[in-house]
Amino acid sequence: MDKNEYFKVMQFPAQWLHYGLMPDHLLAKLVELYEPGNERASEHDRNGVFHWWLKQDPSKDVLVKLAALSFLDPDQIMAADVRSHILKSKNVDEEVRALLT
Asked: What's the rounded Cα separation, in Å, for the pair 89 and 83?
């Protein structure tokens, strides 16, 4: 499976690439770990990428993009949980909070 096919099968919104928030090394690792059937729980991979970013202490700019991506995610239950974690980021401010509420 190539990176483009993985991205589509695992239901990542294209904005992940547009925003530059899918580092090549991370995407390559996800493709490497993919096994047929993983697409039935694709939210786990997307959630993992959100949390990978949150562990990096992202800038406000990245938090804004993560917030936007959370609203585009096909699994809004998972995305709501991600938004709660974004709110806990040390770089969150009132603008980011407003985007999340």
From this structure: 10
Is residue 101's pLDDT more than 90? no
b/e sequence 26-46, b meaning 16+ C-beta within 10 Å: ebeebbeebeeeeeeebbebb
Q: Are 49 and 26 in contact (CB under 8 A)?
A: yes
- By the 10 Å C-beta count (0-12 exposed, 13-18 middle, 19+ buried), 101 is classed as exposed
- The pTM score is 0.94
Q: Encode 54-76: b = buried (16+ Cβ within 10 Å), e = exposed.
A: beeebeeebbbbbbebbeebebe
Please give the Cα distance from 98 to 52 (Å, whole number). 23
- Rounded-to-integer distance, Cα 18 and Cα 1, Å: 21
Distance CA 77, CA 88 (A): 18
